Task: structure prediction
Amino acid sequence: MKKYVLFLAQVFFIFAYTLSVRGELIFPKLTGPIVDEAGLLSPEMEEELQQKIQSIKQAQVVVALPKSLQGQEIEEYGYQLGRSWGIGQKETDNGLLLIIAPTERRVRIEVGYGLEGVMTDARSAQIIRRLTPFLKEGNYNQALLSGLTDIETTLKGSDLPAINPATALKTGSATDSTGIFALIIFGIIGFLYIMSHPKGYRAQAVLDLVLLLLSIIGRGRGGKGGDDHFQGGGGSFGGGGASGRF
Amino acid sequence: MKKGWIILSIIVALVILCGIGVIKTLNGMIGMDEGVKASWSQVLNQYQRRSDLIPNLVQTVKGYASHEQETLSAVIEARANATKTVVSPEMLSNVAAIQAFQKNQSALSSALSRLMAVSERYPDLKANQNFLDLQSQLEGTENRIAVARKDYIDSVKAFNTRIRKIPTIWIVRLFSDMEPKASFDIEPEAQVAPTVSF
Result:
């Protein structure tokens, strides 16, 4: 098992290396409307931001916090990220990315072709100017909230084709209830398992269960990257938007 | 008699196969040709967009920095030159035309960047909302130009690689008037490798 993992890691690094040598960017996986590769957001905050994003119906909005821009300018990185993820519908190109690169201290709004008329460069720049003070304080949560609110307001300013619900922000609220359900069943089985042991061995049984639980959680974490509920609709980008420093 | 029929049918089959091959190759090249033309139109669009921004920008700067007359008229002149050079999608194989286009547009680019640098010296201008909007529109447009140019370069590269291959080149020469397309030179500032900081 260990050997296998090591081998996979090697293959991955060789692959990543050849890609980087060719000067191509390696993008994080699109796992949801918020891709926090840099790990700056708390789960609660992510939840709140996700709700905010879900209320925006005129566009497919994705927030990206990449660890590194891999030596590229954020303008270069941004449109290629948008194209690679295919944010927005193919027919309407209504994708919008809010990118914050904490390492390079750059921020950018990348606007899909179809939204350029509403989300003009001037407006994008205004939004950037309004959120950079929060970034300077290191308050990423507030910056994102401010940015998303402004984006929502801007997009509401005009009639736009509604986003197709099939590829829209489909984050499973269903998984939450199945999680709780699974927990209850696990609790009952666990209780029965402990009780089935004679009194002196129950501590050992509890330890077994804890270890089992930990291994399941570990696996769950690892598998989360493969969550393909969320995806782009094939929208394209042409470099519209605005950037800022902080 | 029987032998003759077999030979004849083999020849007919070969001709049909060759015909299918020729049609497929030509259709592929026509598709790519259209792709190159579309990406060129995008390049033209974005340059036009920049050109359209300039009168407003010049007017706004003039209001605050009237004694920068020289920089302002350099921009206006460069714009007039740039709009004179028109390269239609049918002229893309003309290297000289593309080079002239590129030269005039980059002259406009440098005139504009001088204007923006000069503007830094006027705090009132920099605080003007209209100027800020125009500045961000100009930045956005420059970025769109960069993207459109890169897309054009990529599509020309793919087209030229395909058209120069054997037997595509023979088929294209025989049945169409398509020629390899001219690409942009990479501009000096783009050649500098980006600095990596850790």
About this structure: The domain at 35-182 of chain B is CATH 1.20.1440.20 (de novo design (two linked rop proteins)). Chain B touches chain A through 21 residues (CB under 8 Å). The CA atoms of residues 116 and 193 of chain B lie 24 Å apart. Confidence is low (pLDDT under 50) at residues 188-198 of chain B.
